[in-house]
Amino acid sequence: MPKNKFVLINRELSWLSFNERVLQEAEDKTVPLIERIKFLGIFSNNRDEFFRVRVATLKRVIKHQKKAVQYIGENPHRLLNKIQKIVINQQNKFDSIYQTILLELAEKGISIINEKQLSTEQGLFVKSFFRDKVMPKLFPIMLDSSSPFPYLKDKSGYLIIKLGRNNKENKSKYALIEVPTDELSRFVVLPKEKDKFFIVLLDDIIRYNLNDLFVNFEHDYIESYNIKLTRDAEIDIDNDISKSLVEKVSKGLKDRKKGQPVRLVYDRNISDDILDYIMKKIKLGKEDSPIPGGRYHNFKDFISFPRIGSSDLVYKKTKALKHPNLANETSFFKVIKEKDILLTYPYQSFEHIVDFLREASIDPKVQSIKITLYRVAEHSNIVKALINAVKNGKEVIAVIELRARFDEESNIFWATKLQEEGAKVIYGVPGLKVHSKLFLITRKENGKQHTYAHVGTGNFNGNTASVYTDFSLLTANKNITEEIEKVFAFYADNIKQGNYKHLLVAPFFMRKKLIQLINTEIKNAKNKKPAYIILKLNNLVDQEMIKKLYEASSSGVKIKLIIRGICSLVAGVKGLSENIEAISIIDKYLEHSRVFIFCNSGDEKYFISSADWMYRNIDHRSEVAVPIYDKNIQLQIRSIINTLLSDNTKARILGSKQTNEYKKTEYKNLIRSQDEIFNLFKNKKI
């Protein structure tokens, strides 16, 4: 492949293109209205994390100009300017979509009104609600130009208040109020009038009562504007060897709350004097991503928008199905000993995993349970089952990754709880994040030890399993379980890396084996044999793997990609990637499963994995990809992948221009893959 043929899309710009696809869902009139407003919340939450992590990283490396260009691939100042322009354009589109949704909700009998639109009766209700519920939570801070500006917390929304005077001789006063959404709902549903619903935001309830709140301050008028500051979310772990990892991460969490500002979002109608005052006080310049926005910020709260009105305003709830082999009251061990089981979420129930661990926790034959935990639910039945196992005399070893970004506090809590109950807790691996999704159960049967294992693509988290598409393989295959035992041995003693013939294990062996699998397809294509690769990933960024896919395409290997998020590979370029097709599917469920399929001269090789094709996953995380040997499960996965590839409703084409055009096919019927997959399971066709 000629050197000048290597092309990449910048990962930051590709990520913004992904979030644009989320915004498309909010714009899509075929999506139920309340679901559309939730997509605005998801878009906003995604963007917050982008600034907290990716933009913050750019600003960290920008100080090292030469290394920054090498690390990022272009001038970081130029990239930040591109990001700023895209974000502002997206914000304008966001505001327009929000206004459209408001009008459509009103047509359905749901009105979001502000403090100026309240009727007399509604005003009395809001006054009472403010006095009883809101006012006790408010602690206004009076601002003084000679005093330091109050600390603005990340993730919090604020109202900045101007108590104005008409007489220039009397100075206006300023105040700051944190909107207490951590204690109260952002949305207050007012008493229903006839068949109409009215909602007022907490921000506007505060605005409506500002005169009462500042009754002791002389003023002629009051102005109030929403502002929000986003901070660097990176956790710095110090090297003090006298401290435990828990202590270091806990300290890092405290420091994160004081991270450097990376973005200020403000109401575009804000007075110039107030904006200048804020920018100076928090020491932000125009290059620090000040984003003019609408009247409200922290739109992530809209993910929890009230479910009111007619049923057609939300997606119809579908109950997760039971796996046909696990539907009856029978032992998991008996079923899995006979054959491998694949669970597919959210179409099938995650409760099977909880039930399996619950059975293991009380089974007198079970000796030990080993498990990796990356993102643990707030109320985790998985951890409760592990604690129950300890109480029933089982050895429980939990490998808990404390550095799972934004889940550190929850993981510290559960790690401490497990330790208190007597479980052995391993805090990850120095220098690596443990991202694998494993458990291993050892059971003594007829005097011999037998092992049962789980390898999955998603976390042991019942909450996310209801909205993320993921796979869980349950197996008693010794080829697999013995190698999973080696992975756990590595977690216990980092010197024991192990050798693997079946699993693809990062960071030591996965890259090499994936390249070997691609090389096999290249060789077969050159020998005029069938050769193809199908990949389903969240992100495709790793440069070496992209180069290898370009080489495969140039050699005649047919490649199909389903990439939900970042895709730095450019598909469909003549002479480079003309044999590569790439789509992204954004719909009601978040496509999270990772699948690798290789033609292998017709004897297809299937893998499911916890790993995306990113440098961090392959080289700096502990990840596992497991081969699928059961032919029926291979057919099941193939059926799911084929359905995703045939989607002509929610699939977007990933091209060099990143326009997110919807895929058009020759099929006359509309195919919405997630609905089709659920129906396949429901009708027992897979």
Structural class: alpha/beta
Rg measurement, Å: 27 Å
Count the DSSP helices.
19
How far is the N terminus from the C terminus? 41 Å
Q: What does it look like?
A:
The protein is α/β, with parallel strands linked by helices. 37% of the residues lie in helices and 21% in strands. It has 19 helices and 26 strands. Strands 14, 18, 19, 20, 21, 23, 24, 25 and 26 form a nine-stranded mixed sheet that branches. Strands 10, 11, 12, 13, 15, 16, 17 and 22 form an eight-stranded mixed sheet that branches. Strands 2-4-3-7-8-9 form a six-stranded mixed sheet. A hairpin with an 8-residue loop joins strand 3 and strand 4 (173-178). Helix 1 (11-27) runs parallel beside helix 4 and helix 5 crosses helix 6 (202-208). The protein is globular. The relative contact order is 0.09.
Descriptive key words:
686 residues, alpha/beta, nine-stranded mixed beta sheet, eight-stranded mixed beta sheet, 19 helices, 26 strands, 37% helix, 21% strand
